[in-house]
Write a structure and sequence with these properties.
about 160 residues, membrane, transmembrane helix, transmembrane
Length: about 160
């Protein structure tokens, strides 16, 4: 409400006219009607008006709140970590059966060296101009597949 004086010095009270911004939705879709009603009631609330009037401030405050929540949650999770769950997990003993693994690795390396030597003999045969037989081609393909298998086994 505003009070103003007109030309005859009489005080006149004028009321602000509230505009109805409510969207009328046909009743055929009650979910959509409820959604629009909630949206309009939120827009008309004090918080909703402030958010729509100051979107940059709202997003800044929301991002700051999320960041602070993340930091606080991280500290709480670190300091309140349940030690009982630590005892339930069994960490395998490192280097268990290490001799066996070392022997397997040495055998794999020896096989790789043997395959390299055999492939080198086929290269020399090719460079000498001797044609490969079908058995040679199959052997090269087998050696190549075996070499790839052994190379991937070390990873």
């Amino acid at each position: 409400m505003e009070t103003t004086k007109n030309t005859t010095e009489e005080t006149v009270v004028t009321e602000e006219i509230v505009q109805n911004t409510e969207v009328v939705v046909p009743p055929d879709n009650p979910k959509k009607a409820l959604k629009e009603k909630l949206k309009q009631s939120f827009k008309n609330s004090a918080a909703g008006k402030w958010m729509y009037a100051n979107p940059k401030k709202f997003y800044f405050y929301a991002a700051a709140f999320i960041l602070l929540s993340l930091i606080i949650n991280s500290f709480l999770a670190y300091y309140n970590y349940d030690s009982k769950s630590k005892s339930n997990t069994n960490i395998p003993v490192m280097y268990q059966n290490s001799e066996q693994y070392i022997n397997q690795d040495q055998n794999r390396r020896e096989q790789l060296d043997n395959i390299r030597k055999e492939i080198e003999t086929f290269r020399q045969k090719r460079n000498a101009g001797i044609a490969f037989t079908q058995a040679d081609s199959l052997r090269i393909e087998y050696l190549y597949n075996q070499y790839q298998t052994l190379e991937n086994a070390k990873k």
